Amino acid sequence: MITIDTPAGPFTMTGDGTAVTAAAFDSSLPPEWATPGEVPASAVAAVRAYFDGDVAALDGIAVNQHGTVYLEQCWDMLRTLDGPVSYTRLAELTGRPAAVRAAAQGCARNQIALIVPCHRVLRTDGSLGGYRWGLDVKRWLLEHESAHR
């Protein structure tokens, strides 16, 4: 496990030696998220590059989290987003336009903050909605990405 000081607050990651398995804007992770193993050095470097302005640096980080087939589809889709979308649009992108609540669960159950960018999903009216690590962090991330795209 490693914690990096960032402008958005402490960012903690855990890994399995080859991939990031959990990440949070906090100095500790929920115990059930922790895995034995190291966070790859390349992931640490990519997160630092992201905060230095290379917002695409996160794209190459290997991740490993498990859920239902649909949750994993949501998480994969989130990694393809290059900007904000609504929960409705996320559901459409997964091929299940009526599954808006399920898409929202994909964001809520994501254990790899920032790298699986659920912070890029907004309400239909464009408001921030919720974010497990706080709306101030979500706002900061969106502004940072907007300034560096």
Task: Report on the architecture of this protein.
There is one protein chain. This protein is α+β, with helices and mostly antiparallel strands and 149 residues long. 34% of the residues lie in helices and 11% in strands. The chain has 5 helices and 5 strands. The protein has helices spanning 41-51, 69-78, 87-93, 100-108, 135-147, and strands spanning 2-4, 11-15, 20-24, 85-86, 121-122. The strands form 2 sheets. A 3-stranded antiparallel sheet has the order 1-2-3, covered by helices on one side. Strand 2 (11-15) and strand 3 form a beta hairpin. Helix 2 crosses helix 4 and helix 3 (87-93) crosses helix 4 (100-108).
Task: Tell me briefly what this model is.
This protein is α+β, with helices and mostly antiparallel strands and 149 residues long. The chain has helices spanning 41-51, 69-78, 87-93, 100-108, 135-147, and strands at residues 2-4, 11-15, 20-24, 85-86, 121-122.
Distance between the termini: 29 Å
Proportion in β-strands: 5-15%
Strand ordering within the main sheet: 1-2-3
Mean pLDDT: 94
Main sheet specs: 3 strands, antiparallel
* Low-confidence parts: none
Number of helices, counting only DSSP H or I runs of 4 residues or more: 5
DSSP strand tally: 5
Which value, in Å, is the CA radius of gyration? 14 Å
List the helices and strands and how they pair.
Elements: E1 2-4, E2 11-15, E3 20-24, H1 41-51, H2 69-78, E4 85-86, H3 87-93, H4 100-108, E5 121-122, H5 135-147
Parallel strand pairs: 4-5
Antiparallel strand pairs: 1-2, 2-3
Descriptors for this entry?
149 residues; two-stranded parallel sheet; 5 strands; alpha+beta; globular; single chain; 3-stranded antiparallel sheet
